[in-house]
Design goal:
- By secondary structure, the protein is an all-alpha fold.
- Helix 3 packs across helix 5 and helix 5 crosses helix 7.
- The longest helix is centred in the C-terminal third of the chain and has 19 residues.
- The protein starts with 7 loop residues before the first helix and ends with a helix.
């Protein structure tokens, strides 16, 4: 079975549903950013509307990338978020970057 490697540009042009439907999170590894995996996580755990209502996918990806670049990224987030199963650890990380994500969403 061949692995599909998505570019960040391809992901930006997806819908939230398409991103959430990606079965293997390793397909997102080639984007070079953590945001696609975190957005896939919030889509698959039904948190998208509660956390980021009204945001477009490209704007949300950018906002999360900026926030994540300025925050400590614990290794367990990299292990748990790709599973896309609700995790208190991942949720706390998202809560921790929420203010910066909102600030970046409001800037665009």
């Amino acid at each position: 079975m061949e692995l599909k490697q998505y570019s960040f540009e391809e992901v930006k042009h997806m819908s939230f549903e398409e991103l959430g439907a990606i079965k293997d999170p390793m397909d997102l590894g080639s984007t070079g950013f953590v945001a696609p995996i975190l957005v896939r996580y919030v889509v698959r755990t039904d948190q998208l509307q509660a956390r980021y209502a009204g945001a477009s996918l490209p704007t949300l990806l950018r906002a999360i990338n900026v926030a994540a670049a300025h925050a400590h990224f614990p290794p367990e987030i990299g292990q748990l978020a790709p599973r896309a199963v609700r995790s208190a650890i991942v949720d706390r990380y998202l809560d921790g970057i929420a203010a910066m994500v909102r600030e970046n969403l409001n800037a665009h």
